[in-house]
UniProtKB/TrEMBL annotation:
Pathway: Cofactor biosynthesis; molybdopterin biosynthesis. Signal peptide: none annotated. Keywords: Lyase, Molybdenum cofactor biosynthesis. PANTHER family: MOLYBDENUM COFACTOR BIOSYNTHESIS PROTEIN 1, MOLYBDOPTERIN COFACTOR SYNTHESIS PROTEIN A. This is cyclic pyranopterin monophosphate synthase. The keyword Electron transport does not apply.
């Protein structure tokens, strides 16, 4: 039997009995950190191995505070550089009037998508100046992609940030899409007061000890 953790504390369990595999889904299963052996059932011996990568309560701690609760910068001096990649996304709901003007490139201030693209690239490089305890990462590459969704009347902003360094670049990716979204807002605010920035989120990060990919 194998437990595989999925979103929402649900588990898929695979049981092999006499070379026959069965699959069962258990919602809201309790997190388990130990190995369990289950005695025979109907004369079929089942070996059960349960595992989970979720940290226990005693292992979870904020990295930017010390034992006295005061803020600190994480010491990464002993870490080795590796290829770090992060991707993030933001969405800006424009509404019908602003969306059509952006689509036709008729906003009086200028080309909204191009300027937001530049702003996002600049923001990624200035992240340590905006977020106090963020390390000054040597960024190798930043790429933004801004697309228009006519169905939802949104600008969808995605960023891809890459570096070879000792710490990740997820904050650079998130800052990039956030500032790009704010730039879209600033360019369009004269024609609509209903613009909404939403769904700023990390899509993936890799290269560190805790890689992550959003699945929903």
């Amino acid at each position: 039997m194998h437990f595989v953790y999925t979103h929402g504390f649900d588990w898929w369990i695979s049981i092999e009995i006499q070379n026959k595999s069965m699959f069962h889904f258990i919602p809201s299963a309790k997190v388990c950190h130990s190995t369990i052996l289950v005695p025979s059932i109907n004369q079929n011996r089942i070996a059960v191995r349960a595992f989970c990568t979720i940290k226990s309560d005693s292992e979870i701690a904020l990295t930017h505070t010390n034992q006295e609760g005061k803020m600190k910068m994480v010491d990464i001096g002993s870490k080795s550089p590796s290829i770090r990649i992060a991707e993030a996304e933001a969405r800006v709901h424009l509404g019908p009037v602003a969306f059509e003007l952006v689509k036709q490139n008729k906003i009086k201030k200028g080309d909204v998508l191009s300027l937001a693209n530049f702003a996002g690239i600049m923001a990624a490089k200035r992240t340590p100046d905006l977020i106090p305890l963020c390390h000054n990462v040597q960024i190798d590459h930043v790429n933004l992609n801004l697309t228009l969704n006519s169905t939802t009347q949104e600008v969808i902003i995605k960023s891809h940030v890459k570096a070879c360094d000792k710490t990740g670049v997820e904050m650079e990716a998130l800052t990039s899409v956030s500032i790009a979204a704010l730039t879209v807002y600033d360019m369009c605010k004269a024609v609509s007061k209903d613009i909404t920035i939403k769904s700023v989120r990390l899509l993936l990060k890799s290269g560190g000890k805790n890689d992550y990919t959003r699945t929903c």
